[in-house]
């Protein structure tokens, strides 16, 4: 790791824990002119992990497949990709931590796994294509092992 990384990062990586949410997720892109409709439908979202991101050019919904089934009739022109799985980093992370997602992203990119990173107040989440899940988990295991093993490669 370069000097730009947080000095706490190796210790955090050695203790890194994650879990895979059992639900399948949908990534949907919606026309920004439908913001009002999207906001009204939020009350019906039942999943414990979801995201709505509003940008000038597109609204992005990340919701479970079951939630998407209930709201999708309101968005017949949505661009939809599925199935995705969510991996939650279980460690409570300091808000000023630098480099964790960079190291994780690099390990997953090396394993040819694309990710969408979702950051919460104290935990990060990775949205991965379901087809890539096993490779991603193996890459995370290898990353933690490489940091935990003083004779192994450094992260």
In short:
With 155 residues, this protein is of the alpha+beta class. Helix content is 30%, strand content 26%.
Helix-strand blueprint:
Blueprint lengths: L8 H6 L3 E3 L4 E6 L4 H7 L9 E4 L4 E6 H7 L7 E11 L10 H11 L4 E5 L4 E6 L3 H16 L7
Antiparallel strand pairs: 1-5, 2-4, 2-5, 3-4, 5-7, 6-7
Helix pairs in contact: 4-5
Describe the protein in words:
- There is one protein chain.
- By secondary structure, this protein is an alpha+beta fold.
- The longest helix has 16 residues, at 133-148.
- The model has no long low-confidence stretch (mean pLDDT 91).
- It has helices at residues 9-14, 35-41, 65-71, 100-110, 133-148, and strands at 18-20, 25-30, 51-54, 59-64, 79-89, 115-119, 124-129.
- Strands 1, 2, 3, 4, 5, 6 and 7 form a 7-stranded antiparallel beta sheet that branches.
- It has 2 domains: 25-83, Alpha-Beta Plaits (2-Layer Sandwich), CATH 3.30.70; 84-148, VC0802-like, CATH 3.30.2130.
- A hairpin with a 4-residue loop joins strand 6 and strand 7 (124-129).
- Helix 4 (100-110) packs across helix 5 (133-148).
- It has 5 helices and 7 strands.
- The chain is elongated.
Distance N terminus to C terminus?
Answer: 6 Å
Give the name of the CATH superfamily of the largest domain. Answer: VC0802-like
Fraction of residues in helices?
25-40%
Main beta-sheet strand count, sense and barrel state: 7 strands, antiparallel
CATH architecture of the largest domain: 2-Layer Sandwich
What's the count of strands? 7
| β-sheet strand percentage | 25-35%
What brief labels describe this structure?
155 residues; Alpha-Beta Plaits; 2 domains; 7 strands; 30% helix; 26% strand
């Amino acid at each position: 790791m370069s000097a730009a990384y947080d000095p706490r990062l190796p210790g955090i990586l050695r203790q890194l824990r994650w879990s895979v949410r059992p639900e399948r997720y949908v990534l949907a892109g919606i026309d920004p002119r439908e913001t009002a409709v999207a906001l009204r439908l939020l009350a019906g979202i039942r999943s414990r992990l979801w995201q709505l991101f509003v940008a000038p050019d597109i609204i992005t919904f990340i919701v479970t497949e079951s939630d998407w089934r209930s709201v999708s009739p309101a968005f017949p022109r949505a661009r939809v990709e599925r199935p995705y799985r969510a991996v939650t980093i279980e460690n409570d992370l300091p808000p000023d931590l630098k480099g964790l997602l960079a190291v994780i992203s690099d390990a997953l990119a090396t394993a040819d796994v694309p990710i969408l990173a979702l950051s919460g107040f104290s935990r990060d989440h990775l949205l991965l294509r379901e087809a890539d899940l096993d490779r991603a988990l193996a890459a995370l295991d290898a990353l933690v092992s490489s940091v935990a093993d003083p004779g192994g490669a450094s992260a």
